[in-house]
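Box 3.1 A note on notation
Throughout this textbook, protein chains are presented in two layers. The first layer is the amino acid sequence; the second is a token string describing backbone geometry. Keep the layers aligned when reading.
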Amino acid sequence: MSGYFGGIPAIRYEGPASTNEFAFRHYNPDEVVLGKRMEDHMRFAVAYWHSFAYQGGDPFGGQTLDRPWFADGMAAAKAKADAAFELFDILGVPFYAFHDADVRPEGASFAESKRNLDEIVEYFAEKQGKHKAKLLWGTANMFSHRRWMSGAATNPDPDVYAYAAASVKANLDATHRLGGANYVLWGGREGYETLLNTDLAAERAHAGRFLQQVVDYKHRIGFKGAILIEPKPQEPSKHQYDFDVATVYGFLKDFGLEHEVKVNIEQGHAILAGHSFEHEIALASALGIFGSIDMNRNDYQSGWDTDQFPNNHAEKALAFYEILKAGGYTTGGTNFDAKIRRQSLDAEDLVLAHVGGMDTCARALKAAAALIESGELEAARKARYAGWETAPAKAMLAGSLEAAAARVTAEGLEPEPKSGRQERLENLWNRYI
């Protein structure tokens, strides 16, 4: 053990009345909700990058956090892993997630970086054999280093495309070695600033072919996990090829991948795209591509992706309602893609941020589950669309435009608007929150 979190106890469930800040008030891993243990519903994961690689910088200021593993070399990487698994144990989470750049030092060459990755993966494998936490997903960081400044798969330089292929292959191999449940592709630099220097059609075609190659390789090595794309709008590129769920679905359909690839949806990204979190989840479910989520929130007074821990269970309940409606996770989970504030310097801050986030999500899940059990919202929804269950309506859908139009004069149709009852349903929702 690292000793970094020394003196911080393992977090246990003590119930809503507890005044112990180092306790769960709502997250009880063994509580059964809709026939499943809460831990199995939530599938919580700690994000390695924000929890152990983040140094407290923001667009206007540099490092504020000081961790003993903030150094180069494999010794520091292993010290970071020791601290990480210590936190996973304290929280009792079943999963974690990482980028390659989070866990290994950058080498002077790709070969050296890969050797470093392979070494730390074996260290992780040993850790997983002794600890509860397993890998929810791995991915390659193809956005931070200057080589990625013009994209990875969409880069105008074919040598960078080749480097991206080598990076994804190495990290998919690493994820497979660790028994990861998913592999994520986050295209932070897969976009452009101006059409003056961009061949949009070529870049999009290259991105599609790259994803086809990734899927082909997944099958060749026998990786059983899901391949996920994380939709991301605007930041850092002005225009991006994976803007939101709908854009990603169109992309997948275009390249014949809609049955091979799913989405990892982030709260903060949904907001930046002009949507709600629950909208993106519901749409992904309707399209058959829902995979996993990155749980966080934005500061709504800021215009960028602040990646804060969730603290509003009413807001999150809408998202978990859609997840439960979709049947819950299969390979996915609730990954805290969230970071403490740059003024939150202590080890205790990192632990309590996760405790609060896990409690918020658990409270949201229980509210959503109670409403699903009652059936009231679904009954109201079904009643609103009941007309489509009639034989004439079904025949109209199966028939022609002319036949549908003919009903208007033949039956003297003059439809009267019917209330959507939004406020009544909002009141219903609030009773469960």
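The first strand starts at residue 12 and ends at 13. The mean pLDDT is 96.
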